[in-house]
């Protein structure tokens, strides 16, 4: 009986630590979403818009992860499948933004806005990745949250690269190229999260 009580206390402590970390990364991603969205609209940047949508999806993902901490494995797997759908939705939104810039409004993005917003977003996402790293190989709930944080690092680096390329070339196409690369990253990530969730659901 004492051993069972000890296990219960340890599990409660683990869940409390997970909830604390998820609350922090949720707040960070909600703030960076607003930052990136404002910068995207001001800077007319598809790359920044893709980053903003990614942060919004991550904030929703972390909220879902927070809701199922301590839940049965089947519930976590189902939520992870929904997270994969959110990542896919972000990918489709990026594709729509690319099409808009290509065929409707091919405006020149402001590389200054891309640079400072991308740098701030990268710094915030590095902090989130560090916080989630201890659970990268844990259950499907926290592992999928880590996957989202890792996507954000690729997004931040890509936006900075696009900003430098726009400045060097004086043309808008580098931002569209970066947005296309991020589209591929999001699609691959959605597949990985869905596959892990499907395996977890079958095991449960």
TrEMBL record:
Gene Ontology terms, cellular component aspect?
Answer: membrane
Membrane topology annotation: Multi-pass membrane protein
Task: From the Swiss-Prot or TrEMBL record, state where the protein is found.
Answer: Membrane
Q: Which UniProt keywords apply?
A: Membrane, Transmembrane, Transmembrane helix
Q: Where are the transmembrane segments?
A: 21-43, 55-73, 85-104, 110-132, 153-170, 176-194
**Highest taxon of the lineage:** Bacteria
Q: What is its main location?
A: membrane
Q: What is this protein called?
A: Cation transporter
């Amino acid at each position: 009986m004492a051993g069972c009580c000890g296990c219960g206390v340890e599990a409660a402590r683990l869940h409390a630590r997970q909830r604390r970390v998820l609350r922090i990364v949720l707040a960070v991603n909600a703030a960076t979403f607003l930052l990136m969205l404002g910068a995207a609209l001001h800077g007319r940047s598809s790359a920044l818009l893709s980053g903003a949508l990614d942060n919004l999806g991550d904030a929703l993902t972390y909220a879902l992860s927070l809701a199922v901490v301590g839940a049965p494995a089947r519930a976590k797997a189902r939520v992870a499948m929904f997270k994969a759908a959110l990542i896919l939705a972000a990918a489709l939104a990026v594709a729509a933004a690319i099409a808009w810039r290509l065929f409707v409004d091919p405006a020149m993005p402001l590389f200054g806005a891309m640079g400072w917003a991308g740098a701030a977003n990268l710094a915030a996402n590095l902090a989130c990745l560090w916080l989630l790293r201890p659970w990268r190989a844990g259950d499907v709930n926290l592992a999928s949250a880590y996957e989202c944080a890792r996507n954000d690092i690729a997004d931040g680096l890509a936006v900075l690269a696009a900003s430098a390329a726009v400045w060097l070339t004086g043309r808008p196409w580098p931002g569209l190229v970066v947005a296309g690369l991020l589209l591929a990253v999001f699609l691959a990530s959605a597949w990985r999260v869905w596959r892990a969730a499907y395996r977890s659901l079958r095991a449960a």
